[in-house]
Specification:
This protein is mainly alpha-helical. It has helices at 2-39, 43-58.
Length: 62
């Protein structure tokens, strides 16, 4: 069980660092809103985070 928790923590930190490196502070805010919304069962907050991340991902295509 501790190995699974360690692997999960490393994966989460890696994703956060990748988002921060690629998309800056706005990406971290979007990821934070999405995570908080999912943990709190708040569809408004999680949708805002998801839309923010989607806009960041689609920006080069626009």
């Amino acid at each position: 069980m501790p190995v699974l928790a360690l692997v999960s923590a490393v994966l989460v930190i890696t994703v956060e660092q990748l988002v921060a490196w690629q998309y800056g502070v706005t990406g971290i805010v979007g990821l934070l809103l999405l995570t908080i919304g999912l943990k709190a069962n708040s569809p408004g907050v999680s949708s805002t985070g998801a839309v923010l991340l989607a806009l960041l991902l689609s920006r080069p295509a626009l």
